[in-house]
Amino acid sequence: MSKIIKNSQIALNPRLIEAARLPVLKDLPQSQGESAVVINNEIDREKIDLDQLKGESEKIIKETEEMVVELLNKAREEARLILAEAEEEADHIRARVYEEAEEIREKAKKEGYEEGWQKARAEMERELKEAKEQSKQMIEEARRLKLAIINSAEKDIVRLAMAIARKIVVAELKANPESIREVVREAISFLDQPENVMLRVNPEDFKILNLLRERGDFNDIESEMPNLEIRVDNRLSPGGVVVESDRGTVDARLETRWASLEDALEHELTGE
């Protein structure tokens, strides 16, 4: 059983780092009314593509499943053939040794010499022992090669799944831009009763968060920290958040969280 199947407890968590101050960037220069109209129009356009994005995600998942099954079946068939060939070769070696030993024994009997018989017997035992050892080594090597093929296929499958998952996450963020609220909530939860919290987000996410505030859909978070401030950081990609507070800094950028997951999977694959 592979290590990937054994361990399903890996979580995509943000990384808590020591407090650090990033350069302060100015908020977008828009009035709240104009911002709400623009953002509502943008969200309406995004929702039009929702069915298409979901269809693409389902297609990607189906293609991934088919590729995974094909890779595993191919690896198992190659390993089975290698092991079968090794066992067949071992059988041939054993049969040849027995045949040669029988010839030697018959020859010694015909000669009728005790010395020849003992010599033939010793030679037969030696060759039989060597044949058994050689057969054992061949079968062990075939088994090691079988495991290597399956492990190699497993790593390829994991890398493929990670690449597909990235596409699905990006598609989900486009289809549901308001999911940035849950990213913010999770990032803040890693801090112990913080005060004077500042969020740094991508410009597009900044617009979404402002719209949520205007609609009152951000009140549950702001009620817990009245000194919450949101600022634009052009260095962040959509879906990522950096939280700064007196309790420390949480790096919840999508790239950071993804790197943590890849490191955990690599650790599971290599056992290091």
Automatic annotation (TrEMBL):
One cellular component term from this protein's GO annotations in UniProt: cytosol
Coiled coil segments of this chain: 36-148
Role noted for this protein: Needed for flagellar regrowth and assembly.
Full protein name: Flagellar assembly protein FliH
UniProt similarity note: Belongs to the FliH family.
Domain Flagellar assembly protein FliH/Type III secretion system HrpE: 130-260
Source organism, top-level taxon: Bacteria
InterPro entries per record: Flagellar_FliH/T3SS_HrpE, T3SS_Stator/FliH
Keywords linked to the UniProt accession: Bacterial flagellum biogenesis, Bacterial flagellum protein export, Cell projection, Cilium, Coiled coil, Flagellum, Protein transport, Transport
Presence of keyword rRNA-binding: no
CDD domains tied to this protein: ATP-synt_Fo_b
Gene Ontology BP term (one): protein transport
Species in which this protein is naturally found: Thermosyntropha lipolytica DSM 11003
The keyword Transport is assigned to this record: yes
PANTHER family, A to Z: FLAGELLAR ASSEMBLY PROTEIN FLIH (PTHR34982:SF1), YOP PROTEINS TRANSLOCATION PROTEIN L (PTHR34982)
